[in-house]
Design brief:
By secondary structure, the protein is α/β, with parallel strands linked by helices. The chain is built from eight helices and eleven strands. A six-stranded antiparallel β-sheet has the order 6-11-7-8-9-10. It has a five-stranded parallel β-sheet with strand order 2-1-3-4-5. A hairpin with a 2-residue loop joins β8 and β9.
Length: 229
């Protein structure tokens, strides 16, 4: 159906640390792209079409120090807004200060408590994702404003590269678009024409149209925060 996974770029000079944190993050259902040096990671960032949600880096990675890697990431317009954290042995105050000045938002000092580490990662990603969602919202309304067919037509006309999220008190539907072309409709485990027939039968609903990636838990948090239901 739809991937709700976050994408994390993991860079570390120590093969054991790279393997350990890859396993921790993968077990928590993150998509992990891992590299053992900064140049490989930068090359990946330049070429990939994947949306990277978070970069986790060691301080002493080969080819580039962690600070130089951070600086090069922040100098790239497509990467500037990606949250960046360091995962390393206890750095001195000067290094921490330089990292924060260059754009790092967190230091994790090894060894870490896995539960606290993951809780902080989830919290950080959720906060950034809600900000991104707010910036990507194109239109919000209710059944009194647009019918389901009108919603689909609007997304096609406006070349929405994202989704329409339609919901009631008890049911939710997702209509995916790729540059204005309708890709698929989902209502729970129902898809396609059956899903379409289901949502057009709803008498009352609210909707949110947005560009960008569909992440259901972020939408639910946004709707709860905004008290839209």
């Amino acid at each position: 159906m739809v991937s709700n996974k976050y994408n994390i770029l993991l860079v570390d000079e120590d093969p054991l640390n790279l393997k350990t944190f890859d396993e921790i993050l993968t077990a928590a259902e993150f998509n992990v792209y891992k590299f053992d040096n900064g140049k490989k990671a930068l090359s990946f960032l330049n070429k990939t079409d994947a949306v990277i949600d978070l970069i986790i880096s060691g301080l002493y990675i080969p080819d580039l120090t962690g600070l130089r890697f951070l600086k090069k990431v922040k100098n790239r317009s497509k990467c500037y807004s990606i949250p960046f954290i360091f995962l390393s042995e206890a750095p001195n105050r000067e290094i921490q200060l330089k990292a924060v000045e260059q754009g790092a938002i967190e230091f994790f000092v090894r060894p870490v408590d896995n539960d606290i580490f993951l809780a902080k990662i989830y919290s950080l990603l959720s906060s950034f994702a809600i900000i991104i969602l707010k910036n990507n919202i194109v239109l919000e309304g209710s059944s009194s404003d647009l019918s389901i067919d009108d919603i689909i037509y609007y997304c096609e006309k406006e070349n929405i590269n994202g989704y329409a999220y339609v919901y009631t008190q008890t049911e939710k539907a997702t209509i995916l678009f790729n540059n204005g072309v309708l890709n698929e409709i989902f209502v729970g485990n129902v898809s396609g024409s059956d899903a379409y027939e289901k949502i057009v039968s709803w008498d009352e609903y609210k909707y949110l149209l947005a560009n960008g990636r569909y992440i259901e838990d972020i939408l639910n948090k946004y709707i709860k925060i905004e008290k839209m239901i």
